């Protein structure tokens, strides 16, 4: 393969699915990861360089060795709840880590970057669906660190001519339909895998964080986007930058909102297993409703999610938790 992309965080959930799609598109993914939350066994489509974002020298060396045309930057700490309890970890790993990474890119002459941003940069949006020009006022440290990195990319563009695509994902979910990759976080805090663990009897129950939100059934609403649809968008973003595209910020979601209760019902429908639940108070830092307007991603990147209805998301994720799909 003559095309090469450097992928920080490529041993993680979204990064590994993206490496599989990159390879299918004829691009060699070189993974740079410290395996803090990722898995060595997820790295199957190219080499693994083991290292941390803080190690500027090691990143420079990787760029000089593999000569990638672009960087995709997934590596981060990514739990909203944890970021409220331990903000220092987030500022160090996400913000300081990204400064080290961007400095390495500058030194080694790599100036195209696709960055994992998030809808958490919007905070509690004043109107829905969320478009890219919605004011960015994050309500938790995680979202603030991601907004800071978006701002840094703007400064590096002005100072050094970097060109970047910031992809603001909504809630990544589902898994490789061919079963080669699953979602494996430890501890697992995301709603769909937690609910599947409860349905499979591998945890006692799912904690539901609040049912007193101003939503139709009282539970939080999120926009679940299939990880393979996200992966495809990354390949499109790499091509977009290769073809000379201007710096871009784009939402990646399904465009639909699904409540916590609707997720639980869909799991029952797909697996015929009940999800035992316990109602708890609201989780700090959780906005009530988030869903995307993806018009801009469609126009600029040809983004058209194919697998992001909630049933398909659950059907592809369930086998990874030992659950049979029954509908
Ligand atoms: N999962 C979601 O719903 C979601 C939504 C929006 C944005 N994001 C962003 O997408 C990215 C990937 O998320 P994910 O769910 O795949 O998470 P993940 O934890 O599965 O993957 C993160 C990867 O980065 C690596 N990593 C972390 N810190 C590192 C460091 N300092 N040096 C080197 N490697 C490091 C980890 O080992 C892991 O392989 C993150 O940037 C996250 O903020 C995720
Ligand atoms: O055991 C659980 C886990 C979650 N929830 C609720 O389910 C919703 C989704 O939560 P979760 O799956 O933890 O995702 P988010 O907090 O929305 O954060 C994810 O989605 C963000 C974009 O919305 C990304 O930026 C983050 O990286 C990613 O962790 C929220 O309302 C939670 O309160 C529960 O009720 N019980």
UniProtKB/TrEMBL annotation:
The keyword Glycosyltransferase does not apply. It catalyses: UDP-alpha-D-glucose = UDP-alpha-D-galactose. Residues 5-253 form the NAD-dependent epimerase/dehydratase domain. The keyword Cytoplasm does not apply. Its EC number is 5.1.3.2. Keywords: Carbohydrate metabolism, Isomerase, NAD. Its cofactor is NAD(+). InterPro entries: Epimerase_deHydtase, NAD(P)-bd_dom_sf, UDP_G4E. Pathway: Carbohydrate metabolism; galactose metabolism. It comes from the Bacteria. GO terms for biological process: galactose catabolic process via UDP-galactose, Leloir pathway. Belongs to the NAD(P)-dependent epimerase/dehydratase family. This is UDP-glucose 4-epimerase. The lineage of its organism: Bacteria, Pseudomonadati, Pseudomonadota, Alphaproteobacteria, Hyphomicrobiales.
């Amino acid at each position: 393969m003559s095309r090469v992309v450097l992928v920080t965080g490529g041993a993680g959930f979204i990064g590994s699915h993206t490496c599989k799609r990159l390879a299918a598109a004829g691009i060699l993914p070189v993974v740079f990861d410290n395996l803090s939350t990722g898995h060595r066994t997820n790295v199957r489509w190219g080499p693994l360089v083991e290292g941390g974002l803080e190690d500027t020298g090691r990143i420079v060396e990787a760029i000089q060795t593999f000569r990638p045309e672009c960087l995709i930057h997934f590596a981060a700490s990514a739990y909203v709840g944890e970021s409220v309890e331990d903000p220092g970890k987030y500022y160090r790993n996400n913000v300081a880590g990204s400064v080290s990474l961007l400095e390495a890119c500058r030194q080694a002459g790599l100036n195209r970057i696709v960055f994992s941003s998030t809808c958490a940069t919007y905070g509690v949006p004043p109107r829905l669906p969320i478009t890219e020009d919605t004011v960015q006022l994050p309500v938790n440290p995680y979202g603030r660190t991601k907004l800071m990195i978006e701002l840094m990319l703007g400064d590096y563009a002005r100072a050094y001519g970097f060109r970047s695509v910031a992809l603001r994902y909504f809630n990544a979910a589902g898994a490789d339909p061919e079963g080669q990759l699953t979602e494996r976080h430890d501890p697992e805090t995301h709603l769909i895998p937690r609910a599947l663990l409860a349905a499979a009897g591998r945890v006692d129950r799912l904690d539901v964080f609040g049912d007193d939100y101003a939503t139709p059934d009282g539970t939080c609403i999120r926009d679940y986007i299939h990880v393979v649809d996200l992966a495809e968008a990354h390949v499109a973003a790499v091509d977009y930058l290769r073809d000379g595209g201007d710096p871009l910020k784009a939402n990646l979601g399904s465009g639909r909102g699904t409540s916590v209760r609707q997720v639980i019902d869909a799991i029952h429908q797909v697996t015929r297993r009940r999800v035992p639940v316990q109602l708890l108070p609201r989780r700090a830092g959780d906005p009530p409703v988030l869903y995307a307007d993806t018009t801009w991603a469609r126009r600029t990147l040809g983004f058209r999610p194919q697998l992001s209805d909630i049933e398909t998301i659950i059907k592809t994720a369930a086998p990874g938790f030992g659950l049979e799909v029954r509908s």
